[in-house]
Amino acid sequence: MTTTVIAYFPSPPQGVWHLWIVPIRAYALFIIAGIIAALIIGDRRWAARGGERGVIYDIALWAVPFGLIGGRLYHLATDWRTYFGDGGAGPIAALRIWDGGLGIWGAVALGGVGAWIACRRRDIPLPAFGDAIAPGIVLAQAIGRLGNYFNQELYGRETTMPWGLEIFYRRDPAGFVDVHSLDGVSTGQLAMVVQPTFLYELLWNLVVFALLIYLDRRFTIGHGRLFALYVAGYCIGRFGIELLRDDTATHIAGIRINLFTSTFVLIGAVVYLILAPKGREDPATLSGSAAELLEPDSLDEDADEAAAETAEATPAEAAAEPDTTVADPPEPEAEAGAEEAEAAEVDPPVVEVQAEPEAEPDESGADEADNAEPTDLPATEPDEDQ
């Protein structure tokens, strides 16, 4: 009896190309493409919820590096024998993140810490950020799984299913032949046909992505509940896919460690989904505090620069403008002295008359003098020619 095989699909012949001496790795390219897609989608969703455009990219400056480090640490912790066990690749290989090996749970956990730091600096609620970026994250995971395809990794058990994945031996630059050679090129020799678990997870992630978009439009979901839905949905799919995988992994009591992780994280997501507030955040809370958007140091520097510019501009402006300053009014004493001097110059005869009194005035003489004043004063006034 013969078995007719409908179709197997092959693995790529290689996952690394060289531009002169620079290696171009498919895994890294797909990771970068996934991050870019997540940020673009997240930025649009953040703006649609009332946030400021561009804030997602600022938060990503913290979240992405933290996420890459967390993903690598989780991979090393759950697959430590590959690097530190007997015959392992060694600690230097543990740093070669571009060769592949990122754990999604570590990436989400430590990436969340980086996002939390950035959100606090921006005075933005972290749950709202999580709701905006959640669909983008799961889409980025789907894109990143294509990198696993090029690396011939994360495959399942051997199968005769018509959609089985062909795994070939690869020869690396040193001449070593192995199915796990990341730098190698296919020899064309078939090693096995396996379950394409990377493809299963890719398709499942696309389903979760579409479901999140639909639910977010259909219902008013906020306060981190959409992010919890993403985590719960991914855990359900990951749990089933882990049961099909047969690649090297750390086991606890004969169970793959990722099964334990998926179970505990799923429980946590469901609890959060139940306890979190219903509805969605007020859009005004997503704009953050304007004072927080600039660092205090930068505000001080701006103030110093403005003061310096004002100080430099003041002498030039003072020299260019005409002097319109009004003289201060004279002091009262000086003013009185000036009036006395003016009176002395204008009315000297009056001063002379007062300076020559009668030797022995009597009452009749005083009366005569008083009666004489009206006739004497007109004669003593100066004319305009003086």
TrEMBL record:
Pathway: Protein modification; lipoprotein biosynthesis (diacylglyceryl transfer). Residues 300-386 are annotated as: Disordered. Residues 308-328 have a biased composition (Low complexity). It is a multi-pass membrane protein. The chain crosses the membrane at residues 20-42, 54-77, 97-119, 198-215, 227-245, 257-275. It holds the Pfam family LGT. One of its GO terms (biological process) is lipoprotein biosynthetic process. Its EC number is 2.5.1.145. InterPro entries: Lgt (IPR001640). The keyword Manganese does not apply. One of its GO terms (cellular component) is plasma membrane. PROSITE patterns: LGT (PS01311). Residues 330-345, 355-373 have a biased composition (Acidic residues). Keywords: Cell membrane, Membrane, Transferase, Transmembrane, Transmembrane helix. It is an enzyme of class 2 (transferase). HAMAP family: Lgt (MF_01147). This is Phosphatidylglycerol--prolipoprotein diacylglyceryl transferase. It comes from Mycobacterium cookii. The gene is lgt.
